[in-house]
Amino acid sequence: MRRARSLLLLALIAMAPALMATAALAETPSGPQPLSDDELSGLRGGFITTNGFTFGFGVVIRSYVDDRLALQTRLTWTPTGPVTQQIRGDVPGVVDLAAAMTSLVNSGIDLTQLAGTSGGVALVDGNGGTALIHNVTAGQLQNLIVNNANNRNLRQDMELNLYLPDLAAMQSASSAQQRAAQMTYDLNTSLVGSLGR
Fold first, then answer.
1. For 100-113, how does the pLDDT look when each residue is reduced to its tens digit (9 = 90+)?
2. Of the candidates 49, 111, 154, 185, which lies 20 to 30 Å from 2 by C-alpha distance?
3. If DSSP codes are grouped into helix, strand and coil, which group holds residue 81?
């Protein structure tokens, strides 16, 4: 009899989350309902994790020619969505990519089939052609160099910034979840151990 009660208790503990989820779904016959635009507007301003913690995200992409900044693109996630800002550096001869397409083709670099980029610059001179392309659209972060020039020092970097304003709360919640999981494990181990007696 004692073993049967322990098995029943163990089964109820294991099934409790599923039973609670079924009861919650039964309260809304059509399942979860989408949020209205007004409700969504109050939730924007970063990403929201499944535990309700918010964080911010930003990217800075930089391309250098001969150790001088040629192009910088900054993506910042704001309460209204992503904002992109592009700045052309001070490298002599660098021009907007769209304006340099003919010069690039004449130097042997054909980017006419390249579409959907958010911007770039080009440098075409006696050493050859170089195209620097930053693409931060359509869920992509790309930093491309197409080059056939000689004697040109090229460098790229991408800085990803993650802002966690609730880091202490996240760590505390994670610690509490770990303690709860350990307690559940200990309880289950004790219950299973009592069945063997």
1. 888 999 999 998 88
2. 185
3. strand
CA distance 121 to 128: 14
Distance CA 62, CA 186 (A): 52
Torsion on CA atoms 142, 147, 151, 154, rounded to nearest 10: 0
Q: DSSP labels for 82-134?
A: EEEEEEE---TT-EETGGGHHHHHHTT---TT--S---EEEEEETTEEEEEEE
Note the pTM of the prediction, 2 decimals. 0.59
CA atoms within 13 A on the CB side of 61: 21
Query: Reduced to 3 states, what is the DSSP secondary structure of residue 75?
Result: strand
Amino acid at 5: R
